[in-house]
Amino acid sequence: MLSGFYTAGSGILNGQREINVIGNNISNNQTAGYRTQRLVSTTFEQNFLYRLEDGVYNRIGEGDPAVITDVVETIHDESYLKLTESPYDMALVGEGYFNIAGNNGTYLTRNGNFNVDAEGYLVLEGIGRVQGRNGDLLVRGADCTVTAHGLVYDTYGNYIDRILITQPTDEAQLRKMNNGYFTADDTEIVDVTTVHQGHLEQSNVDMNEEYTSLIEAQRALQANASALKMIDAMNAKTATLSSIS
Q1: Would you state the pLDDT for residue 51?
Q2: Residue 182's closest CA among 102, 117, 122?
């Protein structure tokens, strides 16, 4: 009976985690540059299954007593661009991420929904200042121009800096943060990615797929919850019978 508790209980926990991941995808459907996440499950250590027959245990196969979350994987497929005509909005086509200097370090993101702060710096609101190759990007006014190569010019056509676009090195680990932001131990500059001013890359969340996955996860959660109730009832009946005998 105890193995049944583990199996159903782990299914409930894993199902709840999957629903949380799907819910996060749905809530970030309109977040520019957001990348879909997928929960990848695996089974706990397999056990041999035996049947007791005529006082003899016979091996009948293998079983998985529990399912666990292996990793939450990020789908990095690019999405389509939406025209906004805002001079501060930027979208990337190709590899790499914008670099945002936040309070706790540099964040990598495909979200180019930028603005300008009171001091004239290009910022991703609530996160930090957008980085050029020489540091914080000081654009000052709405008439700044950004070329396809990420070169930034002011109102008078004077060169300011080049937008810093990087990607993690082969050895570096890309760590997922909240709402589509990432960090990495080591990055390298990307030169071939195209920058589109006045556009935003949309999230790559497929709502049809998310709703379908959500229904499947909810049904699986309900099935495991029902199984857990049945196992609990059987365990209680066994305990009652044992006390009578």
Answers
A1: 56
A2: 102
Gap between the Cα atoms of 73 and 197, Å rounded: 30
Structure tokens, 51: 């049947």
Q: What is the pLDDT of residues 132-153, one digit of tens each?
A: 999 999 998 778 999 999 999 9
For 9, phi then psi, to 5°, come to -65, -45
Other beta carbons less than 10 A from residue 110's beta carbon: 26
Region of 126 (left: φ > 0; alpha: ψ -120 to 50; beta: rest) is left
pLDDT value of residue 58: 61
Residue 117 CB: number of other CB atoms within 10 A?
11
pTM as predicted: 0.77
Q: Are 165 and 98 in contact (CB under 8 A)?
A: yes
The count of other CB atoms within 10 Å of the CB of residue 83 is 11
